[in-house]
Amino acid sequence: MKSRNRINLFQQAAESAGAVVYHCQDVNDAAAYIAEHAGGALLYAPNDSLEQLGFSPALSRSEVSLLEMTSRLDAADAVAGLTGSNYGLAETGTVVIDSTAELVRLASTLPERHFVVLDPQAILLGQQEAGQALRDLQHQQPADYLSYITGPSRTADIERVLTIGVHGPCELYILLLSAVAQPEKGVSS
Q1: How many beta carbons lie within 10 A of that of residue 61, not counting itself?
Q2: Domains of the chain as residue ranges with CATH
């Protein structure tokens, strides 16, 4: 399946599951989008790919309110969390995140809004194709936790009453940003 078709399939499935998918022009566009939609303190869980894209300076320029953490208890004060992701699964609109680092688990589960950055080139068709990619990931850097996130957190009780956000974020924003995306010309990183 062609890359554009995978991206479209991913977006349709993710939006059907309740996520918002935003195509970012560059890291500054992503940071501005986060600043506009975060609604308060952001818990940022940096990783190598987010830092290579220049997220720390872009978030500072966009005046995002970053949560200052002195202990893990401070994470409860975050209104939004930002993480990277390893893969997307087009068939279900799922993002796959190596969440071995505690900060990633906190940023993706505690705040009411979760922003996750996904490289469109990392969108796989589905679980079958993901098997080999996840085995390769495990060999490169053993992951103790992998999170599969499809839409906002939801649960239903025995009476089948659906509730959003009880066990995690009420809102999921998937920011599609190429790993080779650069800041706009004239903006330093």
Answers
A1: 18
A2: 3-176 (3.40.50.10420)
